[in-house]
Design a protein that fits this description.
Keywords: Membrane, Transmembrane, Transmembrane helix. By secondary structure, the chain is an all-alpha fold. It is built from one helix and no strands.
Length: about 30
């Protein structure tokens, strides 16, 4: 069960981190 929750955490966290990094990159390019 712990493996299930850790996998769920990765599945939820990775796309969120990618979106945050993408947004920061877009803001940096637009402001840069």
């Amino acid at each position: 069960m712990r493996d299930f929750f850790s996998n769920l955490l990765y599945v939820l966290f990775l796309p969120l981190a990618v979106m945050i990094l993408g947004a920061i990159g877009v803001v940096w390019l637009v402001s840069g």
